[in-house]
Specification:
By secondary structure, this protein is α+β, with helices and mostly antiparallel strands. The protein is 52% helix and 12% strand. The chain is built from six helices and four strands, in the order ααββαβαβαα. Helix 1 crosses helix 2.
Length: 165
């Protein structure tokens, strides 16, 4: 993240021009307290440069029985990378685990969706978000009914009964 003065130097502009472009939305920026910080990717975009970073392809399924689906996902991702990101170095990561867990182990990254479904209406997006919330809560509720929880509850009842006896 760069300050507007640094961006102005790199672009050969006056700092006030950069600030005006941020206000007009010509340059994407993140507001940090009273100052706008501009991602280096925005400067590269304006200069017509593209960073030759590592492209990470990530596929995930919920269970081991879905291995064919995982393989299909990986093949689709790799095919997309060959066409859309020709020559870029890639790393393919796969994961098998519930999509309900909010804490994933193994990857300390932030995922950014570059091309969300743009053809959805705001109502469709809201409906999809609400269904995801309901599914998450339902998963947690059913998790409370799991074998481990039942065993813990039975043990607690035995302790209470022993104490009352």
């Amino acid at each position: 993240m760069l300050r507007s003065g640094e961006v102005a130097k790199r672009l050969g502009l006056h700092p006030l021009t950069v600030r005006r472009w941020v206000k007009e939305g010509k340059i994407a920026a993140v507001q940090i307290r009273r100052e706008a910080r501009i991602p280096i990717t925005e400067v590269e975009r304006l200069l017509g440069e593209q960073r030759a970073g590592l492209l990470v392809l990530y596929g995930r399924v919920s269970g081991h029985d879905q291995q064919p689906d995982l393989q299909r996902q990986v093949e689709q991702l790799e095919q997309w990378a060959l066409v859309a990101r020709t020559g870029q170095k890639t790393l393919t990561l796969t994961d098998i685990g519930s999509g309900l867990g909010t804490e994933r182990t193994g990857y300390g990254v932030t995922l950014t969706v570059l091309s969300p479904d743009e053809d959805k209406t705001p109502e469709e997006e809201l409906t999809q978000d609400l269904l995801a919330i309901i599914a998450s809560f339902a998963g947690r509720l059913y998790g409370l009914r799991s074998r481990k929880q039942r065993q813990l509850l039975a043990c607690a009842k035995q302790v209470i009964q022993a104490k009352d006896a």
